[in-house]
Design brief:
three-stranded antiparallel sheet; 3 strands; alpha+beta; elongated; 71 residues; single chain
Length: 71
């Protein structure tokens, strides 16, 4: 459902706060001593647009994931 009019969703304040808390506790635990490159590219965002809303997933290189679904 990607069209020329598609725009990536903005994170809500709640999503941002939940992601920031997850990232902080995650990096202080499992990935605390891991090297993530010169610019810290250890987290990626996956956005899956559907006809009923977006599915948003934040994933760490170690495999941990946090999901934010708009539906």
């Amino acid at each position: 459902m990607v069209t020329k009019q598609y725009q990536f969703p903005k994170l809500t304040e709640e999503m941002h706060n939940e992601m920031a808390e997850w990232y902080q506790t995650h990096n202080n635990g499992k990935c605390a001593n891991g090297y993530h490159g010169a610019i810290g590219g250890n987290v990626s965002f996956e956005i899956t647009p559907t006809s009923i809303g977006n599915f948003i997933r934040v994933k760490c290189l170690c495999g941990d994931v946090i999901d934010f679904d708009e539906v």
